[in-house]
Automatic annotation (TrEMBL):
Positions of the ThuA-like domain: 3-215
Coiled-coil ranges from the UniProt annotation: none
SUPFAM superfamilies: Class I glutamine amidotransferase-like
Protein name: ThuA domain-containing protein
InterPro entries the record matches: Class_I_gatase-like, ThuA-like
Amino acid sequence: MRKALIVWGGWLGHQPEEVAAIFRGQLEAEGFEVEVSDKLEAFADVEKLKSLDLIIPLWTMGKIEQGLVNNISAAVQSGVGLAGSHGGMCDAFRENVDWQFMTGSQWVAHPGNDGVRYTVNISNSSSSLTEGIEDFEVSTEQYYLHVDPAVEVLATTRFPVAPGPHSANKPVDMPVIYTKRWGLGRVYYTSLGHQANIMDIPVVRELTLRGFLWCAEGKAIASKAAASGEAVYTGMQDNQL
């Protein structure tokens, strides 16, 4: 049976407990054994993490010990999937650049705050993750991210919509959904998911589930791959204040 770990906490305005319950229900319906924790210490046992198929962090802001980040990183490098949404993954630990390097982006702004009406544009891609999905509109926070150029962008949104100092620049397309690789592991992120009601939107729920399954499938593929012999990346040592 495939195994997943969901760890929620941090700023409660993102309703991490409620979103965790939605994610748990989705995964259990797909046959996963799901563990849910509200403690970062759930990341303390690196061998346990490596035995998983999928890790889902739901922890906005806050601080994390470097050793725990190293454990997650080692697990993902070994083939465990890492997937998350909104601030729960890419505004999780602002001081830890290793976390940002692994996850692929960092939130910096949401002009107009909550309730901005904008379009999510599905990118032209060979990825099966967006197959059959058309552009759609949402009314929520529109995330402005600093993004790793190595990611594969699956959906974007156009800035500016809400006015702000950024409006003086030319229009830009900002990633909303992307994938990347971390060692043998697969990483998936969607900036949608400010609160539980956004995750109840059918198209958002479908895209998120596809991301979870894609990440988890990578574990089986990674287990068949020959070890490269490359040393496991354990951080830059000067990554936290």
